[in-house]
Amino acid sequence: MLVDYVLAAVHMHWPYAEEEVLWRVLSAVKPGGLALVTGIEPYEIDIHPDDGARRGATARERAADSTVLDIEALGDATALLARRRSYRELPQAWVERELRRGGVKVLASHTFPMVLTSESLTSQLEFAKSEADKVPDGELRKALVARAARLQSEARALRGHRRARNYALVVQRGGG
């Protein structure tokens, strides 16, 4: 069974039900059967522009980190101001802990670098703008759209941000 990025969308449509969805999906795996669980590590786990200088990051890399985090934050904030929910990524460590607690064995795990292109960042900004359309306060709505436009120009200047990552877990359901 393939559990492909489903947990990230759960929060938007069924708040705080990530565990429930995970177990409903994995209960469809026969005992002893295998599943591949994939996800995106939340950006803020790997991207820390404030401590970039300590890690040897250049000013350009720190600025790119800041742009990526600002785009993510704008989407989340705009959704909340529209009285709606955003998606949220779940850390690999949380997923592994939840799986093990339920008796599912993690057979292998791997992380993959993820390139955030200007197109993928633009998609996130489009989400923010569509949510801004639903913000009741007109002045705030205009300010959010203006911020998205400024971030759009920053996103275009990036030539692919490479510090985000995906993960994949090969798991086996107990009882087999």
In a nutshell, what does this entry contain?
With 176 residues, the protein is of the alpha+beta class. The protein is built from seven helices and four strands; from the N terminus they run E-H-H-E-H-H-H-E-H-H-E. The protein has helices at residues 6-13, 18-26, 43-46, 59-81, 92-101, 118-132, 138-157, and strands at residues 2-4, 34-40, 104-116, 161-173.
Secondary-structure blueprint of this entry?
Blueprint: E1 2-4, H1 6-13, H2 18-26, E2 34-40, H3 43-46, H4 59-81, H5 92-101, E3 104-116, H6 118-132, H7 138-157, E4 161-173
Parallel strand pairs: 1-2
Antiparallel strand pairs: 2-4, 3-4
Structural class of the secondary structure composition? alpha+beta
Order of helices and strands, N to C?
EHHEHHHEHHE
Distance between the termini: 15 Å
Strand order of the largest sheet: 1-2-4-3
Provide the CATH topology. Answer: Rossmann fold
Describe the structure in your own words.
With 176 residues, the chain is of the alpha+beta class. Helices cover 51% and strands 20% of the residues. Helix 4 (59-81) runs parallel beside helix 6, helix 4 (59-81) packs antiparallel against helix 7 and helix 6 packs antiparallel against helix 7 (138-157). It is globular. The mean pLDDT is 89.
